[in-house]
Amino acid sequence: MTAHLVILPIIIPLLGGLLMLLPPFAGPEKYQYRRVAAACLILAQLICSIVLMLSVITTGPTLYAVGDWQPPFGIILYADLLSVMLVVLAGFLGLGVTIYSFSGIDRDGKYFHPLIQFQLLGIYGAFLTNDLFNLFVFFEVLLIASYTLLMHGEGKQKTAANMHYVILNLIGSSLFLFVLGTLYGITGTLNIPDMAVKVAQLSPSNQLIAQAGGSLLLVVFGLKSAMLPLHFWLPRTYAAASAPVAALFAIMTKVGVYCIFRVYTVVFGEEAGALANMIQPWIWPLAILTLVLGTIGALASTNLRILIGNLVLVSVGTLLIAFALRTPEATAAGLFYLIHSTLITGALFLIADMLGQQRGKALDYFVIARKIKQQALLGILFVIAAMTVAGLPPFSGFLGKLVILQSATNTDERLWVWSIILLSSLATIIALSRAGTTLFWRYTKSNQASQAHDISKWKIGGAIVLLGASPVLSLFGASIVEYTNNAAAQLHDVPQLIELMNLKGDAQ
């Protein structure tokens, strides 16, 4: 069983999602069965992911050849410190989302829990695959599930947002296929480490084709990660989704960011010869502008969900800045920030939904409404989340931004990175202060609390699971930073990956 640990995070949601489509789980009245199954599945995935992480920490990176078809021809899964960290992160986020949905949101559609499983299947696969074509396949799995999850519930806003989301991603998928054909045509492989070897050996004429393919691939990953100028779909799409779906979508952009880190460090990184660091001239301005526009969007937001969507853009820009620094130290800092930003934005989407539930027709818009019924509880959750995402001590956001600032050692880099990130943090504090003031302190003259029902304990539990990760990240910050340092060192050690592929030709 140990030899097959790598594939278990993919097999469990695949089989579990399929089984929940069949009796006795099918049917609107069988929601309790689906809840039990969903809870067991997400716990099983999380446990397997943690065991896989411990295995990788102990024995090192693992290659898994599905069906014993050896690299570079077979379907190869690759578990290193980076990929298993992100798999555990996705599983933990899925746990919080699943708990939150038990409040009754999952009853709006009988396929909610199977679709969540298929979404997680695509996310896990994207993190674990070592092949660009299989990356495309897992992209499509998670996207198809997300198309339906975005429509979960009712409302014209969901339909309009989903239409834009589907069209853009279909264009991105078509472009992805075109890029794969181009790169395969000149390298003869889509296996990531094998392509890294072939790219470094290309003739000058083929280098131009590879550069064009690599540039188009950045467009594909830029669309997935919502990098400027492909960011405009994200805030309203995430705002239109139901709360647990939006929270799970918090890791969707990180899949795109992960692909940028993986592909442009291994294939087009330091070992790529004439194509080494080919996107470096582009990534700096795109990263800074993504961060700036996300910050401006947060200041201009009309409701809390759109504000959080723009904060997702801020996190993407910050991560791209860490990538642009192109050092293992900056990558490690970015990985810590990735964990923090994913969990805290996911928690904020859940908090925004609970606030909207108690404000009646005003929802989470920044307008005067009746006093929130459970003001103390929601106020505490909101303040903790706001301080965390703004980067105030002692929460994880402060540590995440601090390690990124420290990773900028060059004088020019330090000037840009420090000024942009600190100004963005200040603007985030202003935006969240305005939001909190309006939502909690500005209410109608009647001063009567809303007559809304008390918030479900499932909702509170789901939000606390994600929000509680922030103090844990701070408390064990030294150990987690050490882990991300090791993960970044593995990612940047391309010769070791190539050697591992050759030595593990007889992988399971």
Describe the structure.
Helices cover 72% and strands 2% of the residues. The chain is mostly helical and 508 residues long. The protein has a domain at 280-475. The chain has a two-stranded antiparallel ribbon. The relative contact order is 0.11.
Task: Name a few traits of the molecule.
508 residues; 21 helices; mainly alpha; two-stranded antiparallel sheet; 2% strand
Largest sheet descriptor: 2 strands, antiparallel
Proportion in β-strands: under 5%
Number of distinct helices: 21
Quaternary state, please?
single chain
* Gyration radius over CA: 22 Å
How many runs of DSSP E, i.e. beta strands?
2
Shape: globular
Name the structural class.
mainly alpha
Q: Report how far the terminal alpha carbons are from each other.
A: 11 Å
Low-confidence stretches are 503-508
Name the strands of the widest sheet in spatial order.
1-2
Helix-strand pattern, N to C? HHEEHHHHHHHHHHHHHHHHHHH
